Amino acid sequence: MDNLRIDKWLWAARFFKTRTLASDAVDNGKVRLGGERVKPARAVKAGDLLAIDNGAESWEVTVLGISDKRGAAPVARLLYAETAASVARRESEADARKLYREPGTTIKGRPTKHDRRALSKVSE
Within this chain, do residues 38 and 71 fall inside the same structural domain, yes or no? Predict the structure, then answer.
């Protein structure tokens, strides 16, 4: 196998939990192949450069291998190589998150009255 649908590859490489989420991300322009928006049925092959934004983090990766089966994370990690610039950017973003935490990140779901008061104290 030398090429595969981009949504299926993103799912197999574990960038998205489901193939539907991968397909939606490609449709919404969150995944770019060589800097251009593509459709979910677009074939990806070894050597392609992908820019991926899954909402929580963004990567810039080069496709190394093709697999249509979702396996363990260490196996999926062999399907791509992250660029040095992408690694540096993600590390700096992680450091920034450690230094300054968003006030609402610890709240799961709808905030309670106590949570809202705590948030308003932080913003004042």
Answer: yes
Task: Count Cβ atoms within 10 A of the Cβ of residue 53 and give its class: 0-12 exposed, 13-18 middle, 19 or more buried.
Answer: middle
Minimal CA–CA distance to 52: which of 22, 30, 73? 30
118 shares a domain with 100: yes
- pLDDT digits over 111-123, tens only? 789 888 888 887 7
Q: Quick one: which H or E segment has residue 3?
A: strand 3-5
pLDDT digits (tens, 9 = 90+) for 48-104: 999 998 877 889 999 999 988 998 999 999 999 999 998 999 898 888 878 877 766
How many domains is the chain partitioned into structurally? 2
